[in-house]
Design goal:
- The chain has 10 helices and 11 strands.
- The protein is of the alpha+beta class.
- The strands form 4 sheets. Strands 3-4-5-7-6 form a 5-stranded antiparallel β-sheet.
- Helix 5 packs antiparallel against helix 9 and helix 8 packs antiparallel against helix 9.
- The longest helix has 28 residues.
- It is globular and about 80 Å long.
């Protein structure tokens, strides 16, 4: 009788990861974390977004383009003699804006158009002079007698045109969740700067709707944000019991904070004298709506929104005292950016370990 061959099943011992391999893996993870730290830091320091901008000149001076030396702010005489208007590029309630040229550099010349609003114009100039920093458009000169202000030109214009800019072939590579979150971080950085400025706590009052907010900021060619319009920046002084009101008219809509709306109902006609004042937490209320615009609808933006859900819910607290500070919002945004970059770079690390 023919015997059937017997197949013996061999048992293999479980594969063990050697201590050398594990140590190598851990070292690689630590190295990658260090590289990620340096990568994120690049945006806050190397790219000129650090708290102190080494490119800034002393007070009363400016640098433009590739020029290494600082020049004094242009006087009335210098503006009249050296600046040439090219065309009108905008007009608001307070001023008319001209694209102009100075020594082969494109610049922006703003001129008062309504003499009744000269106090607003001069307040904007005062703020522009006092707040010169990496967050604020660069002042090049001014003439109080002629109510003119000269500032740096940024060809991408205001944030109103952000989405259109990101659809230009040259900038399509910027249309990512990462770059859009960086813009939101820039925006919150400006708010944080205004709330802790050298002049004290300033409130961004020209912000009654999203379009108005976006019109106050410029997009630079290297995709950072600068505040451009400082005509309406009242000062909060808690120690002196000084709060603010943004204008003398009734504000409506969900975009403005609850404390900015008329609190006595439709049956009581609005009176400015009866309207309670408020503080800088009105700016915090608006951050989620502005950031939602920045994030857009690109791949990954919903994941960013999910990570920002808690801090945005805190920003929308009805009681202003319960809302976070701009610094707390900024810290959270930066943590989320670091976390998401790490997850994108090491999606399988946790499983490997």
């Amino acid at each position: 009788m023919e015997k059937k061959p017997h197949f013996v099943r061999r048992e293999f011992p479980p594969r063990e990861v050697s201590s050398v391999s594990l140590a190598f893996l851990l070292a690689a993870v630590l190295l990658l974390n260090a590289l990620l730290y340096l990568y994120v830091n690049k945006f806050y320091i190397a790219s000129g977004r650090a708290e102190t901008d080494p490119g800034l000149c002393p007070f009363g001076y400016f640098k433009l383009g590739a020029v290494k030396n600082c020049s004094p702010w242009l006087s009335c005489e210098a503006i009249n003699r050296e600046v040439r208007k090219l065309k009108c590029v905008g007009e608001g309630a307070v001023k008319k804006v001209f694209l102009s040229e100075w020594k082969e550099n494109k610049v922006v010349l703003s001129q008062l158009t309504n003499s009744e609003l000269k106090e607003d114009f001069l307040h904007g100039l005062k703020m522009l002079k006092a707040l010169q920093s990496k967050h604020v458009v660069r002042l090049l000169g001014y003439c109080v007698q002629q109510f003119t202000i000269l500032t740096e030109y940024h060809p991408l214009g205001s944030l109103r045109g952000l989405n259109e800019t990101l659809h230009i072939p040259k900038y399509k590579g910027m249309n990512t969740w990462h770059r859009r979150l960086m813009l939101a971080i820039d925006y919150v950085s400006v708010i944080r700067y205004l709330h802790s400025s050298p002049l004290g706590t300033l409130v961004m009052c020209d912000s009654n709707d999203l379009d108005k907010v976006l019109s106050q900021y410029l997009l630079t060619s290297d995709f950072h944000i600068l505040v451009n319009d400082l005509d309406a920046l009242p000062l909060v002084n808690r120690s002196a019991g000084r709060l603010v009101k943004c204008g003398h008219r009734e504000l409506r809509g969900e975009f403005v904070a609850p404390e900015q709306r008329w609190p006595y109902g439709e049956e009581v006609p609005f009176e400015d004298d009866l309207m309670p004042p408020y503080d800088e937490k009105t700016d915090i209320w608006k951050i989620p709506d502005v950031s939602n615009f920045f994030l857009g609808h690109v791949e990954g933006s919903d994941i960013v929104r999910l990570h920002l859900f808690d801090i945005h819910a805190a920003c929308k607290k009805k009681d202003p005292a319960e809302r976070p500070s701009a610094q707390e919002v900024l810290d959270t945004y930066r943590k989320v950016l670091t976390l998401l970059i790490r997850e994108a770079a090491m999606p399988g690390t946790r499983e490997m370990l």
